[in-house]
Every structure is written in C-alpha cells, then in structure tokens.
Amino acid sequence: MDNTTTLYTILDTRFGLEEARDVARYGCSGGVSDFIYSSELYDFFDDHEEDIENLLDEYDVTYQQLKPDFETMQQIREAAVWFAVEVFCQHKVERCEAEAA
Hints:
The radius of gyration is 13 Å and the shape is globular. The longest helix has 28 residues, at 73-100. The protein contains five helices and no strands. Helix 3 (38-58) crosses helix 5. The chain starts with a helix and ends with a helix. It has helices at 5-14, 17-26, 38-58, 63-66, 73-100. It is mostly helical. The chain has one domain (2-100).
C-alpha cells in the first residue's frame, strides 16, 4: 500500500489491535472515537484526501458506491473516511494474525 503509507501510519498509531478488531468486525457506523463527529471526519478527510482517494482507486470504489443516497458532500467525506478506517483495520487484523501464526 505505497499510496496510503502516511494514512496507514497515522491509523496504525491511532488503533490498537483490539479496537482494530472491533472496527474490522462491526465497521465505523456504530461509532468509533475520533471518527464520529462531522467536524472530525471533515478534518480527517481534508488532511488525507489524496491517500483516501488512492485507496478508493486501489479497491475500484467510487464515492457514489460508498454513499449512493448522499444528499451532501459531507456525507460522502464521512463514508470515504469510514471506508479507509475499516480497510485499514481489516489489514491490521489480518497482518497481526498472520504474524502470530
């Protein structure tokens, strides 16, 4: 994931393994500290937009697919951030489980 190195480094610092497992299993929509409020999500998207877009490209996912019924650009930003966080957490769990095996 060369295109998301900065994003993944930041998220790796933010998420421990147990919380990453929870996010990988249940997603972000139920509420994940630091990724709940619109202002937090807006700022995170603004700071990491290029990395998030690279991740979307890597997974061949469009903004429209993330939030087909969007009404505002903020809803798209939030869905994109949650997607990036969820993908990161899934990778972290997979990586840790592979290392433990």
